[in-house]
Structures are given as C-alpha cells and as structure tokens.
Amino acid sequence: MTYRELIEEHKKKYPGAEARENEPMSAHTSLRIGGKAASYFEPASAEELESVILSCRAGGLRCFVLGKGSNVLFADGELELAVISTAGLSEIKTEGETVTAGAGAALSKIASAALAASLTGLETLHGIPGSLGGAVYMNAGAYGGEIKDVCESVTVVEDGKIREYARDACDFSYRHSVFEEKDAVIVSARLRLKPGNSDEIRAKMRDLAERRREKQPLEFPSAGSTFKRPAGDYAARLIEAAGLKGRAIGGAQVSEKHAGFLINRGGATFDDFYGLMETVKKEVFEHSGILLEPEVRIIK
Predict the structure, then answer these.
(1) Is 175 tagged catalytic?
(2) Is pTM beyond 0.85 here?
C-alpha cells in the first residue's frame, strides 16, 4: 500500500474525512520547522482514529500521532510517514468535579472550562501550549504542577481496541508515562479537580501568565523547554553556565531571555535546530559532566 492509497481507502470508509497528501509539518508545530508528510489525517472520532492506525499497520506504513505539535521537531524534506492529528478530538465536558476531554483539546481551553465551572487544579498547566494527549503522554508540568496530579483515567486505542487506564496504571513520573513504552494512542482523559473560587483561580492563572511573559521568549517559535530537568539541577542553569546563552546555528538560537529555550529566530531548518541541540548537549557535558536529555521528540 502507498500513502496515497491509504488516503483513498480511508475516504471510502469515511466520506468527507480530513485526509491530505504532502502536508507541511511546519504548519502544525510550534517550532515552525518540518517537511511534508506523505499523508495527513484528522480523525473526528476514536473509531476513525483506530481505523487509520489499523490501515497503516496492515499496509506496512509508518505513522506518527500528533497533538498540537508543541514538543516535536520534524525533519525537513519529504517525510515518508502518515501523520495522524488528534485535532479533531477536542471535545470538553464538565460534570461535577470532573472534566473529560479529547486528546486534541488544548490545555488552555480545558483550564478555561475548569475556571468556568469554578474547579481548581489546572492553573499551573493553563499556559502550556500543548494538547491533553501530549500532556498525558509525557506527564507535562509547570510551576510545580503536573498532569498526573489531576488525571483520573486515560482512554486509549490499543491492539485495535478502545481501553481505559486508571491513574495508577499510567506509571506517571517526571516527564514520563507508561504510554511511552506502549503501542497505544491516547484518545481522551478524565481529570479529577476540586471546587474552588473562580476569582482566585483566575488571579492565579493571570499571575502565572505574566511570569511566563517576563521570563520566557514567547515572541519566538519554540518547543518550550528543550531539555529535561536533570536530577538536582536545571537545564537552563547548566546551559548558561557553559556560556551558551545566545549561541546560534543558522536560524536556531539559545534564547538570551531563558537559556532553557532553544528558539527559531527566523528561517531555522531541522539541521540548524538539531545541530544546536547537539552542540548544547556536548558543551554542557564538557563543562559539567551532565548529559542533558531532550524533552523534544525528534522525528527524522
């Protein structure tokens, strides 16, 4: 099966489905870097998502599931893979003290829905520019809060079936979940929050947003923190201590505002950004003996 045949087959099963050829990944990632995927899908349901994945596997085709693209670096050029976006799985439902949302729902919108229901627990995650599925996959967090703190259960497509994982089965740890080792695709998650005061929730969200604007290079495309926090230290401190703040390769640069962010200051290519990541890893290791681990997923 070819990637074009995959699209044709899918459209026969799901007339009107969002399925395209040669889709530029630079348009779907926060870094604004990436070549063209041979085929691109935006399933509107868990069943459609399952169907695309099964078709890819049956046809021996490579596939990658994409959320909001805020933590991914795609190679340039022609990408021989099917990218399956969860953007169509973005419904958000609030009931009592729980919020259930699709994998493609933006964390900011989920947090806003919680605010509207006077539910607290998502304030620290409000400013993370990612989707719920991506947040669960890597146990995203900020300002002392992580998705594991509020995640009650996760629904996935696994082995051609839709299954549910309770929180304890997710094996959450720092920037990790069990789904990194499993051949499962996150479809939705249920979050357990607590009743709160809407004015206090809103004030905390505004305060954290202001702190982000002051400290982070939000005016440039980036993937957030490029490296994971090493035990007992901070990637940004190690990068700055190695004299790398402001270092650039082509259009990629270590932010002068926050050394933990590698940014696309304009026209950066995959080779620019990946080359800068490798340079930072090498020089930080030479300076401190600590090997930084990328937080960004690299798709070559």
Answers:
(1) yes
(2) yes
